[in-house]
Amino acid sequence: MAFSAFATGTAKEQAPRRKSKIALLLLLPGILYLMLFFLVPLVSLVITSFQQPVPYGDIGEFQNAFKWENYVDVVNTYGEHIFRSFAYAILATIFALLFSYPLAYFIGVKARRWPLLQNLMLVLVIAPFFISFLLRTLAWKAILSDESFVVTGLKALSLMAPDAHFTGTPAAVIFGLTYNFIPFMTLPLYSTLERLDTRLLEAGSDLYAKPAMTFFKVTVPLSMSGIVSGVLLTFIPAAGDYINASRDFLGGTGTQMIGNVIESNFLVTLNYPAAAALSIILMAVILVMVTVYVKRSGTEDLL
Amino acid sequence: MASGTFAESGADLELVGIKKRFPGFTAIEHLDLTIPAGSFFALLGPSGCGKTTTLRLVAGLEDPTEGSILIGGKDVTKLKPFQRQVNTVFQSYALFPHMTVLDNVAFGLRRRRIEDPVAKAHEALVLVELDHLAARKPQQLSGGQQQRVALARAIVNRPALLLLDEPLGALDLKLRRQMQLELKSIQEEVGLTFVHVTHDQEEAMTMADTVAVMNKGEIEQLGAPQDLYELPRTAFVANFLGQSNLFTGHVASTTSTSITVDVEGAKITVPTKRAQRHTGEVTVGIRPEKLHLHKDEPKTAAGTNSIGPGRIIDVSFSGVSTQYTVAVPGLDNLTVFQQNTTFGPIAHEGAEVWATWEVDHGFGLQDDPGAAPRFPADTDTATIAVQKRRALKSELEES
Questions:
Q1: A 218-277 residues with CB < 8 A to B
Q2: A interface mutation test: which of B88, B90, B91, B98 has the most A CBs within 10 A?
Q3: pTM recorded for the entire structure
Q4: What is the chain A residue with the closest CA to B60?
Q5: Of A168, A250, A281, B75, which has the fewest Cβ atoms less than 10 A away?
Q6: Is residue B61 less than 8 Å (CB to CB) from chain A?
């Protein structure tokens, strides 16, 4: 007894010390990578956001300063775009969740008896990734453009007004966002639902819960980790997306999102401080929203 | 289902002409069964004999291919599980991992909008002596504690019928014994009808008022545990419920009270009323603990059967008793249990012995020996169970 207690005690003391050295060594590339490509750009972005134009300088020439008014200016100028970004992203996330949950449930639970079907459907969910994001969105632009058979067909059936458009409307942008991020929602949902113990559903039914009640009291809470990661994987990139809302793709002048504004400030008007300030705001708002959301859904251990 | 109220008392269960077919195989051939209200009923059988399917049919988790299910005289065949006043203690316990123990127990009460679910859940937890762990999550409990939570979660609903699907299977021996006694006393306390499914014959015999032995989707024999043990009607029951020495032979002579079977020259007498068949090829048997070993040839006496001489080929000590295997020329090996009333075995390996038993202890079986000749050694309980499971698995995989 005494011997074994002694032995395990020393083993326990030794193990973490050895492990921590190896762990540090293994972590080193990751830490270096993050320092170089995340921390340094972040600091540089923060510095840029406080810069002011060089007096009598060229367009795009800025000097270091502490011009916090940049933030007030961009919020005043682009408040509408910021709001629109989050509204679109939230709507796209909700639609993606409503679309993906039944799909993931079918693949992960109902199709368990047919592994072949399960794999086939998973491939179909991932298949869009084989084609570039830009190309897919362009293809949708072609499908939904005014000359396309979809729109002309709907107009011929009088389901659309003769002078109405689909591309360039908020609906088209939200549609594009939803479509593009569905795999990011479906896959984490699938991975949690695939592990769902269906005996618990039987237990729910045995304990007088109707199917809908069992779904909300048992299935949803048990797949919460998948819902949270799917929502994060969809919402965060969707809020900053500038492809779908761009005029070259599914958007129009009235659908510009924060990503489009940042892009035009950086690349067209060369107003680097404004673009940087917008980026920081985007990041901060996402961080706050995600924190509140994760706290609310009771899955802090995911972060 | 009356919502918001408890069942007044246990209800009786009636299965009429139940047949259940799965794609590729038939789980239940034809089942008629009546379980009286307030009784502790055990369905005993090897894996794959259809006992769990029977339970799932009663719970409503499966639909019968044919036949009907009546609970308390009401036909519930078409009702969904959540509409039946039946609760199940699942083999896997199936506790909701995201809820506390208390919420698990209150789940059924809340769904039925029964008043004061929390207080009633606490009461049920007190009954299983786990109220102090009410705030824990199921994963933080031991196997035995989880089992008791599962029991409390089912009992708290006061179902007309409580189904137990091998609930003690995952527990170690000591805990299982303890839980068997607790289950029995809870059943007596609450007066519900318990239907207990198990493959453990000892468990079935200690707990149940009535035991039904199931084999291949049919009930082989039904009765009080003692009756089943002392007077098995079929070879399956004789071997599944404890062990038996079986002999097959022609009936050589018949008196008004007994029949005598000639087994390879040995004459074995069985009381007529304890034998199911009285002519032709008959299989008779005797329980190993009813046999007595003698080192010298016993005198032939009326009222006893005697076999021998044979040679002891194995002696195994198991604490309370010692098991001897005796090879008798012309017969199958005999198994004999002798109480260890003195120190050490009474005979050693290789010793020549005779075995005797009282005629009144023997029994005659119903099986037609021609159909199942000589009960080959590979039909013992464990082998049957393994074979059944393999067959089922392969069939399930095919479908």
A1: 218, 221-222, 224
A2: B98
A3: 0.78
A4: A206
A5: B75
A6: yes
Task: Tell me the three state secondary structure of residue B370.
Answer: coil
Between A205, A206, A221, which is nearest B98 by CB?
Answer: A221
Cis bond before residue B309 (omega within 30° of 0): yes
Question: Across chain B, what does the average pLDDT equal?
Answer: 85
Q: Does A197 touch chain B (CB under 8 A)?
A: yes
Tell me, yes or no, if A203 comes closer than 8 A to chain B by beta carbon. yes
CB contact under 8 A, B94 and A205: no
Q: Among A199, A208, A297, which would you mutate to test the B interface (most chain B Cβ atoms within 10 Å of its Cβ)?
A: A208
**φ, ψ of residue B326 in degrees (nearest 5):** -115, 125
Q: Which has the closest alpha carbon to B196: B225, B237, B220, B174?
A: B225
B111 touches chain A (CB under 8 A): yes
Subunit contact A209:B111, Cβ cutoff 8 A? yes
Q: What is the pLDDT along chain A (303 residues), one digit of tens a residue?
A: 333 333 333 444 444 555 678 888 999 999 999 999 999 999 999 999 999 988 888 887 888 888 889 999 999 999 999 999 999 999 999 999 999 999 999 999 999 999 999 999 999 999 988 999 899 999 999 999 888 888 888 888 888 888 888 888 999 999 999 999 999 999 999 999 999 999 999 999 999 999 999 999 999 999 998 999 999 999 999 999 989 998 889 988 888 999 999 999 999 989 999 999 999 999 999 999 998 888 887 665 544
Q: Residue B107 and residue A209: Cβ atoms within 8 Å?
A: yes
As a whole number of angstroms, the distance between CA A174 and CA A178 comes to: 6
Residues A42, A45, A50: CA angle, nearest 5 degrees: 135
Those residues with Cβ within 8 angstroms of residue B335's Cβ, 6 or more apart along the chain or in another chain: B243, B245, B288, B323, B324, B325, B326
Instruction: Give the phi and the psi of residue B170 in degrees, each rounded to 5.
Output: -90, 0
| Cα-based torsion angle of the residue sequence B368, B370, B372, B374 in order, rounded to the nearest 10 degrees | 110
With an 8 Å Cβ cutoff, is A199 touching chain B?
A: yes
Q: Would you call B59 and A217 a contact, using CB atoms and an 8 Å cutoff?
A: no
Quote the minimal CA–CA distance from A218 to chain B in Å: 7
Beta carbon pairs, A and B, within 8 Å: 57
pLDDT tens-place string over residues B204-247: 888 889 999 998 888 889 999 999 999 999 988 998 888 899 98
Taking the CA of residue B134 and the nearest CA in chain A, the distance in Å comes to: 19
B2 contacts on A by Cβ (under 8 Å): none
Q: At what angle do helices B101-111 and B117-127 cross, to 10 degrees?
A: 130
* Residue B132 backbone phi and psi in degrees, to 5: -70, -10
Q: Which residues of A touch B97 (CB under 8 A)?
A: 200, 222
| One-character DSSP codes across chain A | -HHHHHHHHHHHHHHHHHHHHHHHHHHHHHHHHHIIIIIHHHHHHHHHHT-EEPTT--TT-EE----THHHHHHHHHHHHHHHHHHHHHHHHHHHHHHHHHHHHHHHHTGGGG-HHHHHHHHHHHHGGGGS-HHHHHHHHHHHHSTTSHHHHHHHHTTSS-TT--STTSHHHHHHHHHHHHHHHHHHHHHHHHTT--HHHHHHHHHTT--HHHHIIIIIHHHTHHHHHHHHHHHHHHHHH--STTSTTTT--GGG--HHHHHHHHHHTS--HHHHHHHHHHHHHHHHHHHHHHHHHTT-GGG-
Of the partner residues B81, B95, B98, the one whose CB lies closest to the CB of residue A206: B81
ipTM: 0.77
pLDDT for the residue numbered A5: 37
